[in-house]
Amino acid sequence: MATRPARSAAPGKGKTAVAIPQLLWNQVRPAPIVLVSGTETFLAERAIRQLRDFLRLEDPSLEVSDIQADSYAPGELLTLASPSLFGEPRMIRVASVEKASDGLLVEMLDYLQNPADDTTVVLRHGGGVRGKKLLDAVRGGQGGAIEVVCTELKKDTEKYEFASTEFSVAGKRVTPSALRSLVAAFSDDLAELSAACQQLISDATAEITETTVDRYYGGRIETNAFRVADAAIAGRHGEALITLRHALSSGADPVPIVAAFASKVRTMAKLFGARGGSGQLAAQFGLAPWQVERAQRDLRGWSDAGLARCIEALAETDADVKGGGRDPVFSLERLIGIIARRGEA
For residue 144, what are the domain limits? Predict the structure, then answer.
């Protein structure tokens, strides 16, 4: 993956230009100051762990120390960064810089003018305006810093790429349908998605398929939800009802099931009537090529009016399962019938 280009100062906005390399979480490398920014805690923790492991590989005598920015003791940074008797390299991890005390901010700004030799200071900033002067100084080039940007992975395409990379790095083969099932099952928690990937990497001896994923994680609510939606959209009314009842008996909540329908129908609506190759349409609508191809298959036999009717039914069902109706299960079953008929009477 390419390094993010540094942002220029916006004229008249008073913003500091970013003069340091901005790297993705999996590109972390040593530097006197490593700013780890962004709201995705899991990726930030992994980047910091990878940096520690790299430094330790270079020198097993690495000393690792931690500072809590909101409870900083005066002089703590300089004490930890001072050369030791045996000259071991040091890594100082500063957590919660977005909550930093005034004392830490002042001492860190001074430290940037003359960073200690053989020392890596990691500043973890989770977002917000606190510490802006320090961030501006770091991003402006003081201290020989780099920035590792750990933004939240919100799109399924980003999570799909993340999971794919997990298997690729481990040298494991995995089918696209298995990746889709994993992302559907663990879409709300990146740490759980990573753990599921690592479990399969550890256990599987052959190619990882959708069947493999189902054997391990078939009970996940989200997976069942998408199976209900898939069956209904394909016109398999009976199968969709059976899968729904199994999901509900396994503890599934109607709300995420409706959300699964909404996700798929929303993608279908985006692509209805669109012309072009999967790659072109994926770029145009912010989707993955496989999502485009799946939606195009799902749209066969659908009419504009039928799709509109299903969208209306989805809105009604969503309101019902969130407290607006007396019987959420009945509303779901009615929705399945409407979608299985492709919105036709």
Answer: 22-149
